Amino acid sequence: MTFDTRIFFLIKKFVFKLKEKTYIFKKSFTMSFFLLLAGFLFGNLFGTFLNILRFFIPWDGFILLLILLILEIISFLSYQKKYSFFIQQPRNSNPINKNIINQRNEKYFSFFLLPENRPIYKNLNFMKIGLMFGFFIDAFKVGS
User: Fold this and answer.
1) Which of 35, 50, 89, 99 is in Cβ range 3.0-4.6 Å of 126 for a Cys bridge?
2) pLDDT tens digit string along 69-84?
3) pTM given for the model
4) Is 126 in contact with 115 (CB distance < 8 Å)?
């Protein structure tokens, strides 16, 4: 009896994909969960240390703008497309301008485009999510 039928091929393919997905989950779950909880801790401690920050930054609006800027940069880096960046190519340009813009992009922004930095951005994103969740829970503590 042979097992070279289509159904057995599909079952083998499904089992292989399932093992592949669980391997990725096993590999990244502990670090992701740790960073999520660390961000949650920092979000909860932010309200405690806000008075200390007020000695260095006089207006609370600057503190909020700084936090918002950091969170938006992390979101931009983690959710951007694979090789796109915010400096776009001109639509109708001659090859000389295109080379100048490509050289600028590669010179100044090549660090953000490196594919080996993607796990760093993913980890920063988990930290950001935990921080925002900590802010959310802290807002309930302040409101009650």
Assistant:
1) 35
2) 999 999 988 887 665 5
3) 0.65
4) no
Residues of the chain below pLDDT 50: none
Range of the domain at 130: 28-82+108-143
**How large is the angle between the packed helices 118-143 and 60-79, nearest 10 degrees?**
140
In a domain, 53, yes or no: yes
In the chain, the number of structural domains is 1
CA 101/CA 51 separation, integer angstroms: 45
Residue 93 counted as domain residue: no
Return all residues near 79 (Cβ < 8 A) that are at least 6 apart: 125
Q: Please give the C-alpha separations between residue 89 and each of 78, 84, 103, in angstroms, as whole numbers.
A: 22, 10, 12
Burial of 126 (0-12, 13-18, 19+ CB in 10 A): buried
CB 40 within 8 A of CB 128: no
